Amino acid sequence: MSAAADKPPLADDKPPLAAGRLALGLLLAPALLWLGLLIVLPHVNLLLLSFHDSSGGGDPVWSSTQYATFFGEPLYWNTFVRTATMSLLATALALVLAFPVAWTIAKVARGRTRSWLFAAILIPFWASELVRTLGWIILLRQGGILPTLLHTLGLAGPDLDLLYSDATILVGLVYGSLLFMLVPLINVLDTLDNSLIEAAYDLGAGRANILRRIIIPHAAPGIAAGCLMVFMLTLGNYLTPVVLGGKDSMWFTDQIYTQFITRFNWEQGSAFAFLLLLLSSLLVWLGLRLTGQRLASAMRQT
């Protein structure tokens, strides 16, 4: 037997398993604490609180009254469906608007032009959401910049007010979430090999065929990531619908705010919040299943 075979293994060849696990635990501890304390525990508390009923006085009892109230009141149900529909529409509009911009930045612009274009889409988001939403009020209110311009051109009367409508809410939602659609699209389109498009042109493929068979399949993870982000942001948005839509905006987050802050009905507010969470999770899962995408691959594009 050789001397090399008889040589005992060095103690420092591999770190001890216990030390490796301890180091991994210390690295994961902040993330696990953040997830547990700020996400898991509050949602578990919401779920438990939503099944409490303290309307009779005394100690709360377990009950599904809060959910029965939601399904039995047309106002709550209609607002819930309207919020989901408007959020889906805002997501679709954001995708339609963002895709050509992302293609221009990723594939058409070069050098400093590309950097300037990317900076141009980032600059508005240096301001807070409140400031950007108030900017839309200045632009669209009666006597504001856009109504005054339309009146000057003879296209509208002097009392034109573009605020407090569904179209205004959609404009605000799309504007506020457009960046979260653009970034994953730019990332995924930047990885598309230009030679594939050139080869398709050489083989006689038209633009529509190239878009359908090469560009969109390649961009599918970015599309899924962008739609996922925009939908969740618009579904849970409170400020934009309330400010641009007024007191009659009929947005479900406004109903949640009313239950928690105005009526101090935490049980009903918890039920509403959990229903909104279920709706968001269900539609995200359904969207991923329909597009054949995985959540992990979509999130890598964000």
What would you say this structure looks like, in words?
The chain has helices at residues 3-6, 17-50, 65-72, 74-108, 111-122, 129-140, 145-152, 166-190, 194-202, 207-235, 239-245, 252-262, 266-291, 295-299; strands spanning 52-53, 61-62. By secondary structure, the chain is mainly alpha-helical. It has a two-stranded antiparallel ribbon with strand order 1-2. Strand 1 and strand 2 form a beta hairpin. The protein is globular and about 75 Å long. The mean pLDDT is 86.
Strand order of the largest sheet: 1-2
**Gyration radius, in Å:** 26 Å
Helix fraction? over 70%
Number of helices: 14
Mean pLDDT: 86
Q: What composes the largest sheet?
A: 2 strands, antiparallel
Strand content: under 5%
- Low-confidence segments: none
* Cα distance spanning the termini: 57 Å
Kindly name the structural category: mainly alpha
Number of strands: 2
Order of helices and strands: HHEEHHHHHHHHHHHH
Shape type: globular
Topology, pairings included?
Layout: H1 3-6, H2 17-50, E1 52-53, E2 61-62, H3 65-72, H4 74-108, H5 111-122, H6 129-140, H7 145-152, H8 166-190, H9 194-202, H10 207-235, H11 239-245, H12 252-262, H13 266-291, H14 295-299
Antiparallel strand pairs: 1-2
Helix pairs in contact: 2-13, 3-13, 4-5, 4-8, 4-10, 6-11, 8-10, 8-11, 9-10, 10-13, 12-13
